[in-house]
Amino acid sequence: MSETTPLLRDSAHAHHANGHHTRQHGGSTTFQFLADSSYTPGRDSSNILVRAAAEIWHVTKVTVLSSYVNFLLVMVPLGIVAGRLGWSSTAVFTINFFAIIPLAAVLSFATEEISIPLGETMGGLLNATFGNAVELIVSIVALKDGQIEVVQASMLGSILSNLLLVMGMCFFFGGLVHRGRNGEGTEQVFSAAIAQTTCSLMTLSSASLIIPAALYGVLDQSGSKGKAESILTLSRGTAIILLVLYAMYLFFQLRTHSNLFDAESQNEEGEEEEEEREEAHMGPLAAGVVLVVVTVLVAICADYLVGSIDDIVEQVHISKAFIGLILIPIVGNAAEHVTAVVVAVRDKMDLAMNVAIGSSIQIALGVTPFLVIVGWIIDQPMTLRFETFQTVAFSVSVLVVTYVVQDGKSNYLEGAMCLGLYAIIAVAFYSTPSDAVDVGGIGPHVVSAAKAAIQSS
Asked: For residue range 331-349, what is the model confidence (pLDDT) as tens digits?
């Protein structure tokens, strides 16, 4: 553990990543032990206890130093204590809200660490699986608690935040940086084929919400007594179909037509592989342990967060729809948002579009139908019949995004348009009274009938 200990593997890695050995910077053992993410003294010790302790500290150090937002990790134990000791609902909600933000960043980092040695195809599939893990965990907790309105709003909010907020910021900041000279403006270019394919899938998901809403309107107008059971049956059947289509989309993207989605990585293959090697700071096993631990912590914080929502609605007088539509997606997508904007500023628009529209497809065709099936299993009437205003907002957003991306070019004005529409929708949901939106999209007076229909079936 002295400064003369040979470090074959770590010194080779440091030389490869930085061009020379870490000690040539004059770094002390104390600095390496506390703040050097590429090397921790003791990892090559012959003593197994010293080596194990050093490895645990190395993984902890690398994880904590992986993102600038991780200073908020102090909120995690504080949020658990607040929930366990029964602090005020405002304190529990606020502390756990800020606690989930760094946990989401760590979850994203651990997923990237696991995906690096698995190769491009399996790594992409893993990122698709865990990319929206925080929203999925929060939604399952809320669904189990009967907060169907929060679940639906959070799903819609995740889609809209990716389609309008993230993509709008990518277009806006990327367009400003690469706007060209006055009078000779330039536009950023991305794959129009990818944009059209993904927008077609988003239009399909929009139709999957419009059809249940239209059926509910017809049955409600006719005074049918079986509308709750009909909406549940339609939603569950539609959910199964959407999950099959999502599986086909993954096969299309990762196997048969992967060439359409790999344009960016093919153009900069050497650079991307070099960046990936630099980021591999811990092994897949250690990253998997981090992934499991963080998932458990997210579930605990989400439980306290969701449990305080009802009191927050009563005290602050904001709707559950606003909490689900705006606040929860901010928690789950913070790390993804920053990544997308950074790569857009670097003029890597294909990567930015994959983050923005790709995440929206995962939510619309994967996570939301999956939650309908989960509700079916745990006897919660989760349906695809969203509240009318939510359905309209989603459909209009998909329409605007389709028109914006269909030419395969972007500029800062188009980004400002997307951001403006997102702001309008956010203000609309913020101004909506908390008792004006139907619970679970099927109305408060229908929930009991829906549960009765579940039990009878």
From this structure: 767 666 777 788 888 888 8
